[in-house]
Amino acid sequence: MLKKKIAFLLLINTFLGFTFATEADLKALVNPEYYDEFIKTGFVELINTSMDYEFKLVPQSVFKDVCIKNRVAKNEKNFAFTAEDLYLIKKQDIVKKSNATLEDLDIEAVSKVFRKVSTMKGLQYFSKNRKKYDILYKDVYMVDNAKDRNKIPDNYEGDIDNKTYYLIQDDVTFGTALYEQYFMKSGNEVYGRFTNFDPMGIAFVKAVQPKDMIINVVVVDVKDSFVFYISIDTDCAKMINIRKTLENCLTSRMEALKKWFESSF
């Protein structure tokens, strides 16, 4: 009876063009040191404050080396902070949270989501510092270039590979700043790099200088799931309680961006 049920499910999956990620699929992507935790909980997070920290959670993808090279140069007079998150996102869970169908959820759809930046406006997150839910971004929009900064509609059509975009974010903590988005795409994978082009403030102090914060994102389409990696690497001015402040601020943003990704299809 069990064999018949399995055969029936495989037949249905084949008919629908839908297959499940296997252990081999996921093991090929995830650092063996963290694989068991990743499979058990669907999430791994690492936080480090050393100047020479090396990424440990980047998927074994075609963009691994690109991701590793895109780091912030650290100044020993400042405070170094790096956080990495690795998620296993089931496509069925995305369907439940959006208007998408399973057939909609491919790497092309992912490439459009990342460029629909205006949908971040009003994004809610839980502020670990203030111990309450708040609006993370008061406003978000694309601009034509880094110099003129004229507001334009989201530019999400066409191929994303080797493309650069610019956006303005009005962040509840860091204030209004310009960011550069750079993307690469290959097969079933998308890589994104987000770099601040303006100073970022913390408590009235311009704590993070231009290009001193880089967010790396890698998404791999693995059959019925997405492996979603995000890291924040920054060099910040030393301040009282800066570790706790940065850890709370940045990890909250990583979690919020993952939730935004899930709900934007």
Write the topology of this structure.
Elements: H1 2-16, H2 23-27, H3 32-41, E1 43-48, H4 64-69, E2 79-90, H5 91-97, H6 107-113, E3 124-127, E4 132-135, E5 137-143, E6 151-152, E7 163-171, E8 175-186, E9 189-196, E10 200-202, E11 205-208, E12 213-222, E13 225-236, H7 242-263
Antiparallel strand pairs: 1-2, 2-13, 3-4, 5-6, 5-7, 7-8, 8-9, 9-12, 10-11, 12-13
In short:
By secondary structure, the protein is an alpha+beta fold. It has a single domain, classed as START domain (Alpha-D-Glucose-1,6-Bisphosphate, Chain A, domain 4, 2-Layer Sandwich).
Please explain how this structure is put together.
This protein has 265 residues and is an alpha+beta fold. It has a single domain (22-263), classed as Alpha-D-Glucose-1,6-Bisphosphate, Chain A, domain 4 (2-Layer Sandwich). 27% of the residues lie in helices and 35% in strands. It contains 7 helices and 13 strands. The chain has helices spanning 2-16, 23-27, 32-41, 64-69, 91-97, 107-113, 242-263; strands spanning 43-48, 79-90, 124-127, 132-135, 137-143, 151-152, 163-171, 175-186, 189-196, 200-202, 205-208, 213-222, 225-236. The strands form 3 sheets. It has a 9-stranded antiparallel β-sheet with strand order 1-2-13-12-9-8-7-5-6. β3 (124-127) and β4 (132-135) form a beta hairpin. It is globular, with a radius of gyration of 19 Å. Residues 2-17 have low confidence and may be disordered.
- Number of DSSP strand runs: 13
Helix fraction, binned, reads 25-40%
N-to-C order of helices and strands: HHHEHEHHEEEEEEEEEEEH
What would you call the shape? globular
Number of domains: 1
Average pLDDT: 90
Largest sheet: 9 strands, antiparallel
Could you say what the CATH architecture is?
Answer: 2-Layer Sandwich
First-to-last CA distance: 38 Å
Question: According to CATH, what is the class?
Answer: Alpha Beta
CATH topology term: Alpha-D-Glucose-1,6-Bisphosphate, Chain A, domain 4
Helical segment count: 7
Radius of gyration: 19 Å
Uncertain residue segments = 2-17
Proportion in β-strands: 35-45%
Structural class: alpha+beta
